[in-house]
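Sample intake sheet
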Amino acid sequence: KLKKQIDYNLERLEGKYISASFRFATLLGDLKDTFGTPLPLERREQLKEQCISTLEDLHKSSPNYNKILVTTDSVSFANLVQERLSYVYIIPGSIGHLAYNGADDVVLKTFLDLLLISNAEVVYMIRTKIMYQSGFAKRAALIGNKPCIDLFI
């Protein structure tokens, strides 16, 4: 099942790609996580726009790649970038934190994120001072022996 899903998603990524990971935890109010509190609504939207702007800059500076694989723990951010940026690919599936939701579809999505990040040409972990400094993307880069850039915005 995992191999089938990897192949399915690799086909949609259309060749070489880069990845960008965003770990918001509870900041955007759409994930139960182990720490943090949701931001006020206006600040949530500002944070999303800041991250989208970074994706636009990353796309402009990486013309050799058709797609940016975006992994995130926020459904609202995932939906927004899919609506607005045609060059972004988000792996379909249920987003959740394994500490709170161990459903098969959440576990499968987590493994797909990890393995497809590991296949990216360059891995970016993008964050602000209030976002969580996750090691997920870095571990994926290590698995794939790929460069990982911690991009502080």
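Comment: Strands lie at 17-22, 67-72, 88-89, 123-127, 148-152. The mean pLDDT is 91.
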